[in-house]
Design a protein that fits this description.
Layout (H helix, E strand, L loop, with lengths): L3 E3 L6 E4 L6 E6 L10 H15 L6 E6 L3 E3 L4 H6 L3 H20 L3 E6 L2 E3 L1 H8 L2 E5 L3 E3 L10 H7 L5 H10 L3 E2 H7 L4 E3 L4 H13 L3 H15 L3 H16 L2 H11 L9
Parallel strand pairs: 3-4, 4-6, 5-7, 6-8, 7-9, 8-11
Antiparallel strand pairs: 1-2, 2-3, 9-10
């Protein structure tokens, strides 16, 4: 039996304590509300990500969900109950903090998508470093259907797929299936539903076989350079590679290559 901690009174989020390999798991657990990012879910996610960020031995975070939906975005009922600009500003600021916190984690973050991911749910998938989807999964940013352009989801979506593809989804509210999401670059792999856990486990194992220091440095560089001009990006990347080569893990890796053996990463 897996050791889960219930982070909120409503059990909205299941937090799997880090296993010995440094793998954390967060499971959205409000299937009756389609795992919407309501008040409790947002608070639970923010606290959980902060705890993972404070774990020096963390290696990977897997984000998954229970039920038919991965995440159906924000809780519209809660939003309608408080038609106040200050409340809405705070709500989206909190959501943005969580998205940025996922990006700032020095570990790989993987979304395991078993069902529909729409609006902020699609944003959540796009914000993860990697994503594996079941064939049944669907993706959309359909806030426009209720008169609400998915502005914050557009930030992550437009950094995953081509601008015109993103705008078509944002302007029409139309959904794409898992295979199309893979073709567009929103997800890495698509598998049968029964193979989702194993596909994620294989990806996790591949990442765990690589040195944590190099992954942390590389993730930071990858996203930082993406917003730069070409000259500045190359300058930053060159500095990152030079610093990376000074790490014991890189010195050992290069020496192992020269000696035609498998590397023994320093602890």
């Amino acid at each position: 039996m897996q050791d889960f901690t219930l982070l909120s009174p409503a059990d909205a989020l299941l937090v799997h304590r880090r296993d010995p390999r440094g793998v954390h798991r967060l499971i959205l657990n409000d299937p009756q509300q389609f795992n919407t990012l309501g008040e409790i879910m947002l608070a639970s996610l923010e606290q959980a990500v902060q705890q993972i960020a404070a774990d020096p031995d963390a290696r990977v975070l897997v984000l998954s969900a229970q039920g038919k939906a991965f995440c159906a975005g924000h809780n519209l009922k809660e939003m309608r109950a408080r038609p106040e600009l200050a409340y809405y500003q705070d709500l989206f600021a909190r959501c943005s903090r969580i998205m940025l916190a996922l990006r700032q984690l020095p570990i790989a973050v993987i979304a395991a998508v078993q069902g529909v991911a729409t609006a902020a749910g699609c944003q959540l998938v796009a914000q993860c470093d990697l994503a594996v989807a079941a064939e049944e999964a669907r993706f959309g940013v359909n806030g426009i259907d209720v008169g609400l352009f998915c502005a914050t989801p557009s930030v992550a979506l437009s950094r995953n797929i081509l601008p015109k593809q993103a705008m078509e989804m944002l302007l029409t509210g139309e959904f794409i299936d898992a295979r199309e999401a893979q073709r567009r670059g929103l997800v890495n792999r698509v598998v049968a539903a029964g193979q989702l856990d194993q596909a994620v486990a294989d990806l996790v194992q591949s990442i765990l076989a690589k040195p944590a220091q190099a992954i942390a440095l590389g993730k930071q560089l990858f996203y930082q350079q993406a917003g730069m001009g070409l000259d500045a990006a190359y300058q930053l990347a060159g500095q990152a590679m030079a610093c990376n080569l000074m790490l014991d893990v890189a010195q050992e890796g290069v020496q192992a290559f020269v000696e035609k053996r498998s590397p023994s990463w320093p602890v």
